[in-house]
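Lab notes, practical 5.
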Amino acid sequence: MSRRSTRLEDIAALAGVSISTASRALNDHPAVNDRTKQKIWKLAREHDYPFRRYMPAGPIGASGTIAVVTPRPQGREGRLSDPFFLELLAGVGEAARERGCDIVLSHVSPQNLDDLNAAMTTNRADGVIFLGQSTLHSAFNRMAETDGRFVVWGAELPDQVYCSIGSDNVSGGRRATAHLARLGRKRIVFLGDLDPPEAMQRQRGYVEALDAAGLGVDPDLILPAHFEVESAEGAVDSMLRRGLDFDGIVCASDLIALGAVRALLHGGKRVPDDVSVIGFDNVPFSRYSRPALSTIAQDTMKAGRLMVSKLLDHAGEGGGRSERIPTDLIVRETCGG
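Output from the prediction step:
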């Protein structure tokens, strides 16, 4: 049989079913049992019948499908290989599995309201989880006025309408800074991207802890660095070359902290003797780096369960109310004490 001329009638004949049954199977109609669907799909695939647009979003037997979309971070390319993203994705995946749902990781990287609407309306999933807010806070607010089902991983902002799940970033930044202050550190740097809402909240916690410790805030000690090892390494190299006086670094992520430690060691500084360092995320490599990285842990498994629950259990409610997840200080070798 010619692959180019395969017709619905041919697929039905090969499967030994009626044309109407073959059509229903290709459209994933619930009246056709799973075994027959699989048989017909296999035949359609083998004979190059154009059926893929009719296939379900996930394998047979799933109670639903969740699409995961990752907006592009401000001013740079988003990387799916980012270790915290992978931990967060694992949390969503485990939670979806517990609910009998599949997850679909989208190639889309929305940058405006039109992109968000396209991500919501051009898939067959039961709902969408956006891993990150980027610069899309206002667009998410507008999209919350529709009946689309979505949840966002990110910060909670004052005028927010949509549902977001995220860590208590202010508390995390405060706790990291207060720990270094208790160790006797007097010149504590905040190192991180200063644009994303989550990083801004971690910086706010840093400022609050300095004020509480009576150390005051030196603007020269608040330094930008992208969520990348190389960016942080370059920032700390620059501090060392300029002779900036500092004895502690609070980092907005573990990747930033790893870059900071690398630069300090290359610059002849001892960690934590000369400079204490604390990261944020508690990704797997943080405990295996040398020296092992002190950090603020985010509970990605709980985050996944909350996002999936909000998405599936709050239809018509915009995902329900936003929630913050507590963070925890993990003390290892880079800060001592």
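Observations recorded by the TA: The longest strand covers residues 64-69. The mean pLDDT is 89.
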